[in-house]
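Input/output pair, single chain:
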Amino acid sequence: MRIILASQSPRRKSILEDAGINFETIPSQFDESCIQPTSKEAYVMTLSFEKAKEVFLKHQDAVVIGADTIVYFKDKIEHYLGKPKDEDDAKRMLRMLSGNTHQVLTGVTVLSNDFQESFYTVSNVKFKALTKEDIRWYIETKEPFDKAGSYAIQGEGHQLIDTYDGDFFTIMGLPIKEVLKVLSKIKTS
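Output:
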């Protein structure tokens, strides 16, 4: 079975490699800005589906995995935190998350000629209260700039986190246990 990861995320690639999956990486070119947020669950699953579909239409002999992760803060659509646009945006997000709990949602779609399944997982993350110095230090690591919510739990960003509840891999961007369950359905169908 030919498997394609429709993502350029090094974290998702690493998670699949560590799980022993043979796959190719073909990043999706889908323009996320054309999707308007509705519910957080529908939004993240729609993004994962559209990313998977964009790659699948060019590689219909494959099983394509699309994924998207958002940070969601205080039950407001305007508080969907994607990747920061620049340093000021990263600072704004980190100040917002400082001392607060937020949700991380990862949506996943697995798509092939005769199979389609989309799902999402949720984890809660509580940040420590961050000082201006903490934020400046973390910005200087350059780690925030391609991460939803401007942090990486698996990197230096773990120092910003007080506690988390839920699946670590959801926070990283690919809930691997659930992905493996879905892939096993394809193998047995």
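The chain has six helices and seven strands. Residues 62 and 159 are 39 Å apart (CA to CA).
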